[in-house]
Structure to design on (605 residues):
């Protein structure tokens, strides 16, 4: 093959896994901007939103309570997806931020009678942020980029240590955690479990989701894409790789903190598992199962895993964890990019960042 | 005062001494070729200059400042840019985004978060793609390019930050003759903007574009001078004949 002529005429020599749509000089698809092909993701997002909006109308009350929990966990999943799916930081201790915020607001409510939503949710987010800055500063802000193993073990250790600390600390309720947290309030209104709490959580999820979506599609998101793909390479462009990572880690911690404080008030109690390995692994599974690096994938993962656990535990009382485990294994073995990869191609998942004006050819 | 001055560079990997007191001096707007037989330490010296490896001994000065201990990020911000030997364009991103990624590297974080420089950089992205004959592929994923085109894209990315010194490690590796010729053409206009250090096996290519050459052998400098001087050098001819 005359590689020179091929190169000069602009003909692609795509490898075997090159999508057909991106090969060939005369193919219209080959020159169409990415935006024109990017259609599926918004459809999935709008469908998910539509479904989420009508859920309390079609579900029985006790299921609305369950759905609220899932929405809060989806917010938590979003925090992990941002950190792992976009910045490539394997945070095995995301529950540290979730749980510490949960404990924090529980203490505020129990000991200081602070229950106003205007105070407790920002407080929860700040607690998550503070812990993420502390841990992230230590794990990520070295002179040279930290290895994935170092970061994953460091975050895991942080989460595990917090879990043990909470179990042994009488002030935090030890093994039992803090029960009977008063309801979250707005003026004289109390947020009880049910449709109102559901829409509150959903509203927060939507706002955070949109902010994350804007962030990952911004020029900052492009830097993150570079970071994820080839951290070493972009350092040679002059990117402060460690700073980028620490910032995303802190944003992830803030979102996890927000989710944790909502969770504490929704459940009415906090317990050490919220800080530890159990929740930390659960959130990893949400994102991997649904499809990391897509935002919506983490939300879908949380919904499907929690939904499946709920249904399976009702119908297969003894063996449901085994069935769920097998399902997770199957997905991770055969769809390593998660369920979302059934409908979403690689090109769309990565997306485009430049905003070129319309091209003519 | 030279732009780049590496002296007494020693690099030891375990029992292997890759560089044994190598030196390299590059002036402003100079195209400098680094040649030598396989295993002579060319790439290692390049990496020590770029910050990909830390020299065991010796110093690297750039724009009159000792940069021996600086990280790659700090070197890039000081005006140095490296094109890796193995192409490392980001395959899943479009060509456009690859260039934009390189161009925006030194933008302020807040500008990146609010995408403030995206519009202003658009023309620059397209100009760079145009210079390297890739403009009509702007919106294809970089993985769909031929090997030669990926090399060009990477050179374009390395040039994006308007470096004062560009380090090219085997830019024509794996290219056809025609692609090499075009690469030479593409590199010529760079001279007005920056200096170049180039590691290359293709001696004809080196001869065509470089002003000065440094020949390494077994981790030491065998000769350094203008292309004509090196061509006339007996010792250089000897090692190339010996290894041929």
């Amino acid at each position: 093959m005359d590689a020179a002529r091929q190169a000069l005429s602009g003909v692609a020599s795509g490898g075997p896994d090159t999508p057909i749509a991106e090969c060939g000089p005369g193919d219209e698809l080959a020159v169409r901007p990415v935006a024109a092909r990017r259609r599926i993701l918004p459809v999935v997002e709008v469908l998910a939103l539509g479904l989420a909006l009508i859920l309390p109308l079609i579900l029985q009350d006790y299921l609305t309570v369950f759905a609220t929990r899932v929405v809060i966990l989806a917010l938590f999943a979003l925090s992990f997806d941002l950190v792992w799916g976009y910045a490539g930081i394997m945070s095995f201790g995301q529950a540290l931020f979730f749980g510490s915020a949960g404990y924090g607001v529980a203490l505020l409510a129990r000991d200081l009678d602070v229950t106003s939503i205007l105070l407790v949710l920002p407080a929860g987010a700040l607690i998550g942020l503070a812990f993420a800055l502390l841990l992230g500063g230590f794990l990520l802000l070295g002179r040279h980029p930290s290895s994935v193993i170092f970061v994953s073990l460091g975050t895991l250790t942080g989460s595990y240590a917090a879990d043990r600390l909470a179990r042994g600390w009488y002030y935090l309720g030890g093994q039992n955690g803090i029960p009977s947290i008063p309801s979250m309030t707005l003026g004289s209104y109390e947020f009880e479990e049910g449709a109102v709490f559901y829409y509150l959580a959903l509203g927060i999820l939507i706002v955070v989701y949109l902010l994350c979506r804007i962030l990952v599609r911004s020029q900052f998101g492009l830097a993150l894409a570079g970071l994820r793909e080839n951290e070493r390479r972009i350092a040679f462009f002059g990117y402060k790789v460690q700073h980028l990572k620490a910032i995303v880690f802190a944003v992830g911690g803030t979102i996890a903190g927000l989710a944790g404080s909502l969770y504490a008030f929704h459940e009415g109690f906090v317990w050490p598992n919220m800080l530890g390995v159990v929740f930390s692994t659960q959130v990893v599974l949400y994102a991997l199962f649904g499809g990391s690096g897509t935002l919506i994938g983490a939300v879908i993962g949380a919904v499907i895993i929690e939904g499946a656990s709920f249904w399976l535990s009702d119908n297969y009382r003894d063996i449901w964890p085994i069935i769920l485990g097998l399902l997770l294994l199957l997905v991770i073995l055969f769809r390593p990019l998660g369920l979302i990869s059934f409908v979403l191609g690689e090109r769309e998942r990565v997306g485009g960042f430049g905003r070129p004006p319309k091209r003519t050819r | 005062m030279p732009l780049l001055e590496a002296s007494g560079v020693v690099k030891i990997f375990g029992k292997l001494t890759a560089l044994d007191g190598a030196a390299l001096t590059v002036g402003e707007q100079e195209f400098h070729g680094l040649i030598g037989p396989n295993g002579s330490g060319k790439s290692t010296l390049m990496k020590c200059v770029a910050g990909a490896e830390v020299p065991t001994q010796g110093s690297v000065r750039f724009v009159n400042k000792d940069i021996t201990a600086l990280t790659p990020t700090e070197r890039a911000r000081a005006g140095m840019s490296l094109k890796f030997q193995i192409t490392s364009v980001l395959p899943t991103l479009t060509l456009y985004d690859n260039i934009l990624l390189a161009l925006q590297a030194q933008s302020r974080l807040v500008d990146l978060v609010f995408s403030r420089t995206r519009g202003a950089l658009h023309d620059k992205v397209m100009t760079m793609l145009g210079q390297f004959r890739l403009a009509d592929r702007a919106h294809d994923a970089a993985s769909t390019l031929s090997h030669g085109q990926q090399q060009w894209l990477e050179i374009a990315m390395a040039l994006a930050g308007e470096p004062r010194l560009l380090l090219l490690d085997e830019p024509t590796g794996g290219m056809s003759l025609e692609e090499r010729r075009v690469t030479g053409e593409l590199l010529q206009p760079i001279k007005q903007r920056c200096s170049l250090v180039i590691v290359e096996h293709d001696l004809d290519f080196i001869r065509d574009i470089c002003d000065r050459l440094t020949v390494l052998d077994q981790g030491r400098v065998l000769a350094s001078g203008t292309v004509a001087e090196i061509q006339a050098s007996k010792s250089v001819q000897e090692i190339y004949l010996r290894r041929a």
Summary: The longest helix of chain B spans residues 118-131. Chain B touches chain A through 63 residues (CB under 8 Å).
